[in-house]
Amino acid sequence: MKRQSIVGSRVAVAVAGALLVSFLHLVTPLSMLHWHNSFQHLYYLPIVFAGLTSGWRGGMLVAIVACLSNAPHDFLSFTVLPHYAMDQVLDFPVFCAAGILTGTVTERGRRQRADLERTAARLTEVYRQLQDNFEQMKRAERLFALGQLSAGLAHEIRN
């Protein structure tokens, strides 16, 4: 349950980051296209963060939020700079792809780590059993040697 709240809060932070970038888009005049270009690239930070912290679903969610929150800016700029607005809109599938790819790779890494941890735990258990068996063999060998010594001593006493 605690993990879900941590993931939820991280996704909320990523959504807030995407909304902040959209706000920067809206308050910056269209004459400053170099800033808008930088802002467009800033969307990748919350998208990748969400993908890394909550998997492909979180990355996709933040990518969709980034696309939707950027839509008002694109709509306003379409009347003034249609080619620029079209470039902005064409970034939407790339946002989604970045979120899905980052999240998928992260989830795969988590599954591999969990598999390695299970394997390590199993190897530790097998090693412990091997050590126990080795100790039992040493004990049996000592008892066997003691039995041999006792038999030899009994034989000598009888003779």
Q: Report the major sheet.
A: none
The percent range for helix content is: over 70%
Structural class: mainly alpha
Count of helices? Answer: 5
Head-to-tail CA distance between termini: 78 Å
Q: How would you sum up the global shape? A: rod-shaped
What percent of residues are in strands?
under 5%
Give a count of the beta strands, DSSP E runs of length 2 or more.
0
What average pLDDT do the residues reach?
90
Order of helices and strands: HHHHH
Low-pLDDT runs: none
Based on CA atoms alone, the radius of gyration comes out at 33 Å
Description:
The protein is built from 5 helices and no strands. It has 159 residues and is mostly helical. The protein starts with a helix and ends with a helix. The mean pLDDT is 90.
List keywords for this structure.
mainly alpha; 159 residues; single chain
Element layout with pairings:
Blueprint: H1 2-27, H2 33-42, H3 44-80, H4 82-90, H5 92-158
Helix pairs in contact: 1-2, 1-3, 3-4, 3-5
Quick structural summary:
The chain is mainly α and 159 residues long. The chain is built from five helices and no strands.
